[in-house]
Amino acid sequence: MAKEKAKKSIFKRWWFWVIAVVLFIGIVGNLGEDETVESENDQIEDTNTDVNEEDQEDTTEDTEGAEEPVEEEEPAEEEESNAEDDVPTEYKSALNSAENYSDMMHMSKAGIFDQLTAEMGDQFPEEAAQYAIDNMEADWNENALKSAENYSETMHMSKASIYDQLTSENGEQFTDEEAQYAIDNIEADWNENALQSAKNYQETMDMSKEAIRDQLTSDYGDQFTQEQADYAVENLE
């Protein structure tokens, strides 16, 4: 048998070293690219940081340079004070009197005006009285109700008589709406009012029961209902 040729070591083959050189060059190239990418990223981050710092500086300068708006004081209170100073003293006195009549005597708007201008009243000029009426604060419905309650409690009047008294030109001079509000909201025992009126007629005028009944129900008298008058007469002594 012929002797077999001895095999060469792989390190002695030329193609092995060609492959090794190619791989080495590839590895070195990749390392260089990675370093280049990292360097470029660092440069981008540095650039962004510089831009942000410049923006912050510009914003700070704009904020510091901006002037705060100056708030102008509203002259409303001063103008109102000046307007009050221009009101004549007599007008102010008329207003004070009108408010007293409303608060203490629960008078109507028309009743207060008449009282302010009456020769037997306060004798203010009509202009001063009108100023008082225009500038006073009053609840006319409530005034009508208070007046109605006073007529019921002190004079024992009927519902119809109170309404007439509230709206009469010779009485309280409330409007129909104000008087109706009072009648709708008053709390009164009309039977008891009729009885008290009947007792007064009996004690002061010595009237008979039938005469008292007629007086209580008359349109020109007390204007109680028939039932209320009957209750009163039946409970007289």
UniProtKB/TrEMBL annotation:
Keywords for this protein: Lipoprotein, Membrane, Transmembrane, Transmembrane helix
Positions of the Putative host cell surface-exposed lipoprotein Ltp-like HTH region domain: 90-136, 139-186, 189-236
Pfam family, one: Lipoprotein_Ltp
Region feature Disordered, mapped onto this chain: 35-91
Acidic residues bias (residue ranges): 35-88
Residues that span the membrane, as ranges: 14-32
Listed name of the protein: Host cell surface-exposed lipoprotein
Naturally occurring in which organism (per UniProt): Gracilibacillus kekensis
Highest classification ranks of the organism: Bacteria, Bacillati, Bacillota, Bacilli, Bacillales
